[in-house]
Specification:
With 477 residues, chain A is mainly α. Helix content of chain A is 66%, strand content 6%. Chain A starts with 8 loop residues before the first helix and ends in a 39-residue tail after the last helix. The relative contact order of chain A is 0.14. Chain B has helices at residues 5-32, 41-50, 54-71, 73-82, 84-103, 110-140, 159-183, 186-217, 219-226, 231-234, 236-253, 267-287, 298-301, 305-332; strands spanning 144-145, 148-149, 290-292, 296-297. The longest helix of chain B has 32 residues, at 186-217. The chains are: A mainly alpha (477), B mainly alpha (345). Chains A and B meet through helix 2, helix 3 and helix 13 of A and helix 3, helix 4, helix 5, strand 2 and helix 14 of B.
Chain lengths: 477, 345
């Protein structure tokens, strides 16, 4: 029977969750930063009256609308998948993390989705001040959303503030301890910074792409310049935040760090930093290891003598189930992070030399780095999630005990449907985003905003609250 | 505290689900009647009428999911595996529809545009169908063992669930058509007025069919509707349906509203909304107080008081706030939609 050849229902459910969450997070990773960028652009327009800010705002707004819509529809899937595929987890952990998701919807999702309509279509209807407020609400909403969902995720990594009921449910005792659990501040800072960096790299790549074609394009110059300032400041900041987050993980989830670092031996001082290796889970050692002696202790323990625990000091059944995945994802993330720092510094040097806008190799570098934020964010999530295995609630609830009683054929069917739909639909959506990004920004930019009289709004009176019945019809295109 | 938290939360979630049904109902409905609108301007106007609000409308669905997880985790963890296939296919249909919505404006070729238009119709219709099927399967009852779903992955499929599925497609179509009666002018307005009449006939037929079938599904339902004390007021529900239906047909026969009384065009939509509310109340009378029929009541499935109280403390402030700014957004986009509004091509 064909069904018998399927992987287990547990593995299929895990893969389905991984597949849908990775796809989903690509969109917020981009739109969290983009929403703030749009608020900054509109604020600059209001403050200076310069048309280039508004035009650039409207150019990115069209892209934001589509990326945001894909984030919304792929996000609805996540809010139901806890139930469809991880129902035992939901029953047990729901009393504690459920309200965090509830607050995410109430404080963030409604704010974003509600004001998105005004942001996209309402500039002429509500006037500039209210429109700017709507943009700020959307941007603030994306950050609030990140706050709650990262809190929920962090609680699964470092659960506190609860007591276990006799039937194995997590009952909340102290909400402050639940929300501000030990890994939350670090993870939140790391994720939001990553989102800003991801957006800066995409904006920078798009600006660079258009500079290569026309180095005088002032919209492209604006995008590239702002993005490279961000890269210069935020990429090094992220290195520091990432290091702090890593130390926090070492304190609370030592076996995850052991997997990230590829350390097997029980305890050792002067642990090496391993650059390259093929972690061998069968033999409990690394093959083809290339390492720098002592540096591991220095980075993790901030001392050459620091003692580092390896994977062998934990029972096999409590170790991450896929050490090479954690190990390599971590290296991808860190490697790309260092390249981002390099991009920011290089661009700064060229800026000091007055050649920021006409250095084609720098622009090609920035274009190549365009998707690197998305890749690094994905790799980082794989590190932290695969590194949390074999638990859903770290140390307390095993993944194998969290899964819904759905037979493998049903999960396989839904997984196949997800794969086909996501590749077709989001593939088309991303293709559209790339096409929009490739269209050169120019002064006659049309945004989703109807009509363009606001282009010269710097010198015309602000539109009031026109009753649309008497407002002049807009000339047909 | 002596507050009956599960009761408060059951009512709050019931309101949230109802708001979802009517709000996403009309924008899914616009998708359902899409093939009846001519390509080009009619379809663009129809889409422009829902473009500023559909994201917010779908957020109520997320609240339904997230809220159920938070305050009735047991119900969430039994119902979703039980309704696995309809829920998953509904989610995929919503994805398809949401992206088709954005893509249809950007298509380069006429063929591409037609394909995304069809995607918008198909996604909307399948989403509505799956929601109706899930509702029917829920009403019929869920197999439970201990704290988990104990049925198979085809349990949801029955003649009754297909009936409720098709009924919801017709009902959402009615909401969509009457929404467009409200929001459009001219030839499109006249067309959706006629269409709304037909959809009203269809919807009322389905309401009757479901109402007649339900008492035979479980003796409990019949006992409830035909026993005391419900008998004294339960008959008010069908009576109100008849009254609203008459009002709806009369409103649909009238001429389009003039400037003096612009809100007259909203009457058919409000009547359709009333029909949904009555159907919902009728369902509530049958199901109360079961949240996983026929096993768990709202009190069985409730999260601990600490959880329910914590979320309620925020909800009493945030839900009115959300309603206020949602109302503001609808008010900003009030009035008839003009051709050429919304996205540029």
């Amino acid at each position: 029977m064909l069904w018998d050849a399927l992987p287990s229902a547990l593995d299929l459910a895990r893969f389905q969750f991984a597949f849908t969450i990775v796809w989903h997070f690509l969109f917020p990773a981009f739109t969290i930063g983009l929403a703030s960028y749009l608020a900054v652009l509109e604020g600059l327009w209001l403050a200076t009256g310069r048309a280039v800010f508004l035009e650039t705002f409207q150019w990115w707004l069209r892209i934001f609308a589509i990326a945001f819509a894909m984030g919304v529809v792929s996000g609805i899937v996540m809010s139901y998948q806890f139930g469809t595929n991880w129902s035992v987890f939901s029953d047990r952990a729901g009393p504690t993390i459920g309200p965090l998701l509830g607050y995410e919807v109430l404080t963030a999702f409604f704010l974003e989705a509600g004001f998105l309509g005004v942001m996209l279509f309402g500039l002429k209807r509500v006037g500039r001040g209210l429109h700017f407020l709507a943009t700020c609400c959307v941007a603030g909403g994306t950050l609030l959303s990140a706050f709650w969902i990262i809190s929920a995720n962090s609680w699964m990594q470092t659960p506190t503030g609860f007591e276990m009921s006799p039937d194995g449910r997590f009952l909340p005792v102290d909400w402050w301890a639940v929300i501000f659990n030990p890994s939350f501040p670090f993870r939140f800072a790391h994720v939001v910074t990553a989102a800003y960096l991801t957006t800066a790299l995409i904006v920078g790549a798009v600006g660079a792409w258009h500079l290569l074609r026309d180095s005088a394009n002032r919209h492209a110059r604006l995008m590239f310049s702002m993005a490279m300032w961000m890269a210069l400041v935020v990429a090094p900041a992220q290195v520091v935040i990432g290091d702090l987050h890593g130390l926090n993980t070492l304190e609370h989830q030592p076996q995850k760090v052991a997997a990230m670092e590829g350390h097997w031996e029980e305890r050792r001082t002067e642990a090496p930093m391993i650059l390259f290796a093929m972690p061998n889970m069968e033999a409990e050692r690394n093959d083809l290891e290339v390492s720098i002696p002592g540096l591991g202790s220095l980075i993790l323990g901030h001392s050459w003598e620091a003692e580092i625990r390896g994977l062998k000091s934990f029972p096999r059944e409590d170790r991450p189930t896929n050490v090479p995945l954690v190990f390599w994802s971590f290296r991808v993330m860190v490697g790309l992070g260092l390249l981002m720092v390099a991009l920011g510094i290089t661009a700064f040097v060229m800026r000091l030399r007055g050649r920021l806008y006409d250095t084609p190799w720098l622009h090609r570098f920035a274009i190549a780095m365009g998707p690197s934020g998305l890749v690094a964010v994905t790799a980082g999530w794989i590190v932290t999630e695969a590194g949390r295995q074999p638990f859903t609630v770290y140390g307390l609830l095993r993944t194998a005990d969290s899964v819904a009683p759905i037979a493998a054929p049903a999960v396989a069917t839904s997984l196949a449907l997800f794969i086909v739909t996501y590749f077709v639909v989001f593939g088309a959506g991303i293709w559209l985003l790339l096409r929009l990004m490739g269209a050169p920004p120019h002064p006659a930019q049309e945004g989703p905003e109807e009509g363009t009289p606001i282009r010269t709004a710097g010198i015309t009176p602000a539109p009031g609250l026109p009753d649309k019945r008497v407002a002049p019809a807009h000339p047909a295109e | 505290m002596d507050l009956d938290l599960p009761l408060i939360w059951a009512l709050l979630l019931a309101v949230a689900v109802f708001l979802y049904v009517v709000m996403d109902g009309f924008d899914l409905g616009v998708g359902i009647i899409f093939p009846r609108l001519t390509r080009g301007e009619e379809r663009d106007v129809a889409v422009a009428s829902i473009a500023p609000v559909w994201d917010g409308n779908e957020t109520w669905l997320v609240l339904g999911g997230g809220g159920l997880l938070a305050v009735f985790p047991l119900a969430y963890s039994v119902l979703l595996p039980a309704l696995y296939m309809p829920v998953i296919i509904m989610l995929l249909a919503l994805i398809f529809r949401g992206v088709a919505f954005e893509m249809r404006f950007r298509a380069h070729t006429e063929a591409g545009r037609r394909a995304w238009d069809n995607g918008f119709w198909l996604g909307s219709t399948v989403a509505a169908l799956c929601q109706g099927i899930a509702l029917g399967a829920f009403v019929q009852g869920i197999a439970v063992e201990g704290r988990a779903y104990a049925g198979g992955w085809w349990d949801w499929l029955s003649r009754f669930s297909i009936l409720t599925g098709v009924a919801l497609v017709a009902g959402y179509g009615l909401l969509g058509a009457t929404w467009l009666v409200w929001k459009t002018e001219g030839a499109l307005h006249a067309k959706v007025r006629r269409l709304a009449g037909w959809l009203a006939v269809l919807t009322l037929g389905f309401i009757a069919a479901v109402s007649i079938t339900m008492p035979f599904l479980q003796p409990e339902f019949a006992a409830r509707w035909f026993g005391t004390p419900y008998l004294f007021f339960a008959w008010l529900v069908p009576l109100a349906v008849v009254a609203l239906a008459l009002l709806l047909f009369r409103a649909l026969r009238e001429a389009p509203a003039d400037r003096a009384r612009p809100l007259r065009d909203a009457v058919p939509f409000l009547c359709a909304l009333g029909l949904f509310l009555l159907g919902y109340v009728g369902l509530g009378i049958s199901m109360w107080p079961m949240i996983v029929p026929p096993v768990f009541s709202i009190w069985d499935a409730a999260a601990p008081p600490a959880t329910q109280a914590f979320l309620l403390a925020g909800a009493v402030v945030l839900v009115p706030l959300v309603l206020a700014y949602t109302g503001f957004v609808y008010w900003v986009f009030r009035g008839k939609v003009q051709p050429g509004e919304g996205y540029h091509h």
